[in-house]
Amino acid sequence: MGQVDTVIEFAAAAAPQSIELRRAVHRDPEIAWNEIRTTERVVTALESIGLTPRVRTDGTGLVVDIGPGDPVVAFRADLDALPIPEATDLEFQSVNAGIMHACGHDVHTAVAVGIAHVLHAMEPIPGAVRIVFQPAEENIPGGAATMIDEGLLDGIGTVVAFHVDPTLPVGAVGLRSGAITGAADRVVITLEGPGGHTSRPHQTVDLVAVAAHVVLDVPELLRRIIDPREALAIVFGRIEGGRADNVVPSTVVLGGTIRLFNLDLWREMPKLIEGIVRDVASTHGATVHVEYLRGAPPVINHPTIVDSVAVAARSILGRDGVQPSHQSLGSEDFSWFLESARGALIRLGCAPDGRAVDLHSPTFDADERCIESGIAIGAGMLLELLSPGLLH
Question: Taking a C-beta distance cutoff of 8 angstroms, is the pair 208, 242 a contact?
Answer without folding.
Answer: yes
